[in-house]
Amino acid sequence: MKKQFSDFYLECGTDEAGRGCLAGPVTAAAVILPMDFKSDLLNDSKLLSKNKRDFLKTIIEAEAVSFGVSNVFETEIDSINILNASIKAMQVSISKMATTPEFIIVDGNKFKPYKDIPHKTIVKGDRKYLNIAAASVLAKTYRDAYMEKIHDEYPMYNWKQNKGYPTKEHRRAIAKFGATKYHRQTFRLLPEQYKLDL
């Protein structure tokens, strides 16, 4: 995995977590890593165990030149749509960094210009560049912690386990108990074909 894409010293990687969830926010992070940063463990957060993500979160936060994390919540996701919400979360996380980046690389293929900072979108960037992988780890760990917290309010959906993703168990709970204030109302919480399985 490469450290970064450009030759700029202050290049930030940004990524989001929770885009495909039925409940909870979309959470994004932006990270600028120092030029001499090395890690054999760091990878796309989806490929790492919870213990490895938690371990890496501590290292990233201690060693990053700068980082920012941001949530966009359900009501806003419903009003501006999930793609715009994901891009907004990434841009807000960049704005929260104490250091302004000179270049931005984004996981995926969609982004909107942020200030006048040049950017590049990279499909599967979280498996190619350490700074995007670092952002993916922060986005995932912060979002998971939030979902575990709201799990206590509505334990029947088991967000502690599924983190709001559309598992069969989560859909069954929605069918039985209905949607909560944390559910995204514009998402198809119960597809028609699923009703036949109940």
UniProtKB/TrEMBL annotation:
Keyword Signal listed: no
Catalytic activity of the protein: Endonucleolytic cleavage to 5'-phosphomonoester
Cellular component GO terms, alphabetical: cytoplasm; ribonuclease H2 complex
Cofactor(s) recorded in Swiss-Prot or TrEMBL: Mg(2+); Mn(2+)
HAMAP family recorded: RNase_HII_B
PANTHER family according to UniProt: RIBONUCLEASE H2 SUBUNIT A (PTHR10954), RIBONUCLEASE HII (PTHR10954:SF18)
Protein name: Ribonuclease HII
